[in-house]
Amino acid sequence: PRAAMAPGAVLLRGFALPRETALRAAIDTVTAEAPFRHMTTPGGFTMSVAMTTCGEVGWVTDRKGYRYSPVDPLSGKPWPAMPAPFRALATEAAAAAGYPGFHPDSCLINRYTPGTRLSLHQDQDEKDFSQPIVSVSLGLPATFQFGGPRRTDPTVKFPLSHGDVAVWGGPSRLFFHGVATLKDGAHPLLGRKRINLTFRRALE
Ligand code: MD3
Ligand code: FE
């Protein structure tokens, strides 16, 4: 099923379900090389969500600011390559949502455990905002909070479940969004956590 969430934003419920086994194996491959870590915001807060990356560049934050880096600051080495099942899923989901020709160069992997959250923010560290963002939800369900172009715009809540894929393009690309505090639970495949894959084209 395909549903519009906002202008340019499309929710593909269950789109990743047929690929869950391959995705899970690919996540394990990436995190063996580039482990999950809790990064620090420029304001000095430690993020409750743990993150890692694969692809040509990875989104990082520390006291110096937010940016894309070609190397993992933990190892000093390039990020792991983007696994083929990741790449295929992102490109196919974007096309299904009306954005053909999407070729991400970065995949941020977010790990939520019960009690963690991602506060309201915009994704604006990429060069070309005409490129959409594809996000994949795996594991425990979450409540996604979706606002508008201004921080003070009212938010609407969307439940996101295992296998759901959302594509954010057009005007929604720069909308404020966040994830409410994750409720406790256990998922049959992933256990007590939620994994989110966020595919972006960061460079030109
Ligand atoms: C709406 N991740 O990594 S995915 C992020 O579930 C991020 O981990 C959340 O926000 C998560 O930056 C939400 C959905 C998402 C991703 C990017 C967006 C929604 C978006 C960009 C613009 C508008
Ligand atoms: Fe975001």
UniProtKB/TrEMBL annotation:
EC number per UniProt: 1.14.11.33
Enzyme class: oxidoreductase
UniProt keyword annotations, A-Z: Dioxygenase, Iron, Metal-binding, Oxidoreductase
SUPFAM superfamilies associated with the record: Clavaminate synthase-like
Span of domain Fe2OG dioxygenase: 103-203
Cofactor(s) recorded in Swiss-Prot or TrEMBL: Fe(2+)
NCBIfam families: PRK15401.1
Protein name from the UniProt record: DNA oxidative demethylase AlkB
Organism (species): Dongia sedimenti
Chain's gene name: alkB
